[in-house]
Design a protein that fits this description.
The protein contains 10 helices and 8 strands. By secondary structure, it is an alpha/beta fold. Strands 1, 2, 3, 4, 5, 6, 7 and 8 form an 8-stranded mixed sheet that branches. The structure holds ligand GEK and 3-phenylpyruvic acid. Pfam families: Methyltransf_25 (PF13649). Keywords: S-adenosyl-L-methionine, Transferase.
Length: about 290
């Protein structure tokens, strides 16, 4: 099968075809050089451009000590590959968030995707929402994420409006919501801010509204906790990460991604004003909870 990557040979091919028409005249060296240069340029734009989803090798350099994890342009350029190979069950959670949106999104309401990154959840929900005057509000405080998310959304048509905001979810207004999604975002919010945020989400949700909360979690039992961490690392190894990359990422996200237990999440949801909550999906130390207003 031909991919876009094959077409960077186009300048060389065109040159060869043109020469077939005039075989008597050999191509001057400067023309051959120009064709070669154009091919290299095309290869750069087709295969090396940051617009192409690339493989995550951010933690593969043994000479570079990883700093604290940040959602910058380096992470954005590898993010789809990174999250798919790092979060067990990610694809299922994204797909089921869409299914839930099809059931819970209400006419004349907003559906929030908090920490939307490149819009995977937003796109999944837009494919399933089929009610009038419903807007998906995607919020992320990483300028690089929001810029790329805007480009990706423009490539995917859909009838439900999307309002993308570059903003801190702790300072964004959340109102008139039929559904709110926090897919792997609360874990990056400072512990002392989580209660207030969940309280505001519960206030913003209409009766019968739903929160989807997906997180990396810890377990109260030490042996089970360690087993789940080891299984997560097995998952990463099975997806091609080396022990060096796994250790580098672990150091980089320490004190940046702060996981809590399922019990802590459910207790806080109840205190924030949700009438019920339970886990609907779990794979190792990654769980997703639904909470009803
Ligand atoms: N205070 C904040 N305000 C706004 N955004 C924030 C904040 N803190 C972190 N973020 C943003 O939350 C996102 C977390 S990634 C979510 C994946 C997505 N939900 C997905 O389903 O693909 C999860 C991960 O990378 O593990 C990043 O884009 C941050 O910039
Ligand atoms: O990679 C990990 O260990 C994770 O916990 C998931 C993750 C995915 C993407 C960015 C940061 C953390």
């Amino acid at each position: 099968m031909h991919t876009a990557d094959d077409w960077y040979f186009a300048p060389l091919l065109i040159g060869a075809l043109l020469r077939l028409r005039r075989p008597a005249e050999p191509a001057p060296p400067e023309i051959l050089f120009a064709e070669f240069f154009l091919a290299l340029l095309a290869k750069h734009y087709v295969t090396d451009s940051p617009k192409q989803p690339s493989a995550d090798t951010l933690f593969s350099d043994p000479l570079r000590a990883p700093g604290p994890f940040r959602f910058d342009s380096d992470v954005v350029s590898v993010f789809p590959d990174m999250i798919r190979r790092s979060v067990p069950g990610y694809e299922t959670v994204i797909a089921m968030s869409g299914l839930l949106a099809g059931r819970f999104a209400k006419p004349n309401s907003s559906v929030y995707d908090l920490g939307c990154s490149l819009g995977a959840t937003t796109l999944s929900m837009r494919r399933h929402i089929d009610v009038p005057n419903c807007t998906i509000v995607g919020i992320d405080n990483s300028p690089a994420m929001i810029a790329r998310c805007r480009e990706l959304l423009a490539l995917d048509a859909g009838s439900t409006a999307v309002d993308l905001r570059e903003s801190d979810i702790l300072e964004s207004e959340i109102a008139n919501a039929s559904m709110v999604v926090l897919n792997y975002t609360l874990q990056f919010v400072p512990l002392e801010e989580r209660r207030e945020l969940l309280h505001r989400i519960a206030e913003a949700l209409m009766p019968g509204g739903i929160l989807v909360l997906s997180e990396k979690v810890v377990f109260p039992d030490d042996s089970l906790n360690q087993l789940n961490i080891d299984l997560h690392h097995d998952f990463k190894r099975a997806h091609g990460y080396s022990d060096l990359e796994i250790a580098g990422k672990r150091d980089s996200i320490e004190n940046v991604l702060i996981p809590e237990s399922i019990e802590q999440h459910r207790l806080r949801l109840s205190e924030a004003g949700f009438s019920s909550s339970d886990v609907w999906f779990q794979c190792f130390n990654f769980a997703s909870i639904i909470a009803l207003k």
